[in-house]
Amino acid sequence: MASVIERGGERAACEIDPVSWRVAQTLTAVCYGDNGLGLPTNLTVPEIETSHTALDMLSAHIEVKRCLTERGDDGGVLQQLKTSKAYDCELDIAGIVIRADSMLVELFDGSFAGTDERDDEMTVVREALDVRGLKAMAIWVRMVLAARRLLSGLPVTDDAAFNELDRFAVRIRDNQIQLFGLLLEGWQSLAEGRPVNAKFRAVQVLKLAEESIAYMRDNALLLERAAYLRNTSMVSVREEAELLDISQTQVGGAEAWMVALHLACAGRDSDLAAWMSMNRAGILEPSYRLFARLAMHCLGEPATRIRKKLPVRELSRYSLRDDLEGEGERLFQAGEVEAVDTIDHIEIRMFGAFRAERDGFPITDKMWRRKKAATLAERLALGMDALVDRETLAMELWPHAEFNSARNNLYSTISRLRSALGPTPDGKSCVLIQNECIGLNGDYVKTDVRLFDQISREVLGNRTGARGPHLVELCLKIEQLYAGPLYVPNGCNPTYFLRMRRIMQSKFIDCMIKGANAALEENDLQSAIWLAESGLRQETAREDMVRCAMRVYSAAGRRRDIVELYSGHMHHLREQVNGVPEPETRRLYERLVEGRLNRVLVER
Questions:
Q1: Which domain holds residue 81?
Q2: Phi, psi for 446 (deg, rounded to 5)
Q3: Model confidence at 508: pLDDT above 90
Q4: Cβ–Cβ under 8 Å, residues 40 and 11
Q5: What is 290-327 written as a DSSP string?
Q6: Which element (helix H / strand E) includes 450?
Q7: Which of 3, 204, 508, 519 could form a disulfide with 527 if both were Cys (CB 3.0 to 4.6 A apart)?
């Protein structure tokens, strides 16, 4: 079959004039790409000495497609054409593709002002192409018309246009046009409120695009960022905004818009103004204008921050339909106060594990930036009622560093801590500094350790005269607060943390014992068992805790639990300290167990 096709091609090359043959070859390349699916290219055909309009126009179309996917412009190819008409006939194929290319290039060179009568004319042409079965041309024209509607902010009536281009490009093995179709599909999904699908298309393009088609990759990155911002919580957006490198200058259009959109969504107005000033050329780059405009339209209210910082003469170019409705009076107001990301409260938990929350949302490692910032927060939280001097903090957090180095590290860590905690509603910092001492603002920072200390003081000091059920309730609150031993961070001198851990654990056991005894007096066996077993989970070696648990088990009639508890306690003492239970514990065990046994024998 291959030889038959080859011989047929050779005969055709001999019978057809060189110009017509070259035009036919180029036309098949336009329709099916340069992948061996068109007419043979290895035949001996005389060179064409004079230019031919149709051949020039078809060749220009191929070059325009390449330049758009690689650079985002037409490479000046269309300007070099002497005419946009090759044949005086109903369907001038070469003229149609050049007219479509001109309408497409407008989307990238900044001259596009919206759909016009040419779109209506090309719609009629597209129908004629469909009737004649010129599928490749019809698909290209459909894509151009749909792209112009999409980037005008109008509903895409031909919602399968981009998908058809993608599928056709797969069949003819044209990788660049396939990715172009995927990219436009992604922008269509974003405009239709499907950011997950938009991000998926962007990732597809990034995975498949080669380095040579740089514009396509950059455009896909912009689409991915816009889709991410459209479908991500404000907390995550603000966290990641902290990590953006806004010191760069003269970046490309895609990078300039990615950072600008992120800063706008995070509410970082001052950083946004500086970024747009340093990267003005990238922000105003024509090849990204319409895509950035569509992204701003999809993001909604946050995009207002960007429009306020654009040059007045450029404002209309970056706005779609109703983007400016309701903003006219606000856009040019001077002295507008920047919104500050303030906090209502910080909550730090240190029992069991270290956890910090800002207005109910976790403060992540990215927000701390440095692990020592979290360690410093815990150290200050342990002494909420007293400030800690810088020298003590420097020596505890960097025990092996020279003092000057540790002190310098402390300065930067305090800065990170302030940034992570954020300002208070009245503009103050959550980190207090007086002379050479540092602490946390107790009006906004709440800790489980501080609350634990307050309740345990009421229980053990009995300052409020708590009795009976109220005392039991306080002890149950303490049990709920104490999720485990106090967290001890790594990479610092743990002496203070370990000492506080022992103190807190001892207070907890004391409260559990007092609460269990109070519950027994109230005949509240359920609470008594709960408190006693909570104490045993944290400490099994304390004799008074063991005695309390045995009394509770005895009141509940759980003799086997008494035996198991006492046996385990004896084993622990023998293995760990080579000792025996205290006489008081032994006498209580004998009285509870043997007394119950004697009662059983008497009853029998």
A1: 51-158
A2: -110, 140
A3: yes
A4: no
A5: HHHHHHHHHH-TTHHHHHTTS-GGGGGGG--GGGGTTT
A6: helix 448-461
A7: 519
Domain membership of residue 175 (yes or no) is: no
Burial grade of 489 (CB within 10 A; 0-12, 13-18, 19 or more): middle
Q: Is the dihedral of CA 405, 409, 412, 414 positive or negative?
A: negative
Token pair recorded at residue 308: 């306020």
Same domain for 409 and 382, yes or no, is yes
Q: What is the CA radius of gyration of the chain?
A: 38
* CA 193 distance to own-chain centroid: 18
Is residue 298 included in any domain, yes or no? yes
Residues of the chain by 3-state class (helix, strand, coil), percent to 5: 65, 5, 30
What confidence score (pLDDT) does residue 507 get? 92
Query: What is the model's pLDDT at position 117?
Result: 87
Q: Which two tokens stand for residue 540?
A: 């099994």
**Where a domain ends, among 446, 477, 497?**
446
Structure tokens at 404: 């000057």
CB 444 within 8 A of CB 345: yes
Question: What is the residue-wise DSSP string for 101-148?
Answer: HHHHHHHHHS------HHHHHHHHHHHHHHHTT-HHHHHHHHHHHHHH
Tell me the pTM: 0.51
Specify whether 319 is located in the same domain as 379.
no
Tell me the mean pLDDT in the region 506-520. 91
CATH number of residue 365's parent domain: 1.10.10.10
Environment class of residue 53 by beta-carbon count within 10 Å: exposed (0-12), middle (13-18) or buried (19+)? middle
Which residues, 6+ apart, have CB-to-CB distance to 351 below 8 Å? 448, 449, 452, 481, 482, 483, 484, 485, 486, 487, 504
Model pLDDT for residues 219-240, shown as the tens digit of each residue: 999 999 999 998 888 888 888 8
First and final CA of the chain: distance in angstroms? 107
Report yes or no on 23 lying in a domain. no
Residue in 362, 511, 377, 505 with CA at minimum distance from that of residue 441: 377
- Pick the closest to residue 478 from 502, 496, 505, 443 (CA basis): 505
* Residue 312 neighbours by CB distance under 10 Å: 8
Q: What is the pLDDT of residue 259?
A: 92
For the domain that residue 594 is a member of, what is the CATH number? 1.25.40.10
Q: Which residue has the higher pLDDT, 42 or 365?
A: 365
CA distance 243 to 248: 13
Residues making up the chain, counted from first to last: 604
Residues 425 and 511 in one domain: no
List, as one string, the DSSP characters of 495-511: HHHHHHHHHHHHHHHHH
In this structure, the number of other CB atoms found within 10 A of the CB of residue 407 comes to 16
Q: Which residue has the tokens 């961070």?
A: 489
Pair 458, 507: CB distance under 8 Å:
no
Same domain as 455, residue 573: yes
Residue 472 tokens, joined: 């039991």
Residue ending a domain, choose from 158, 193, 223: 158
DSSP 486: B
**Looking at the structure, do residues 426 and 454 belong to the same domain, yes or no?**
no
8 A C-beta contact, residue 77 and residue 40: no
CA 510, CA 518: separation in Å to the nearest integer? Answer: 12
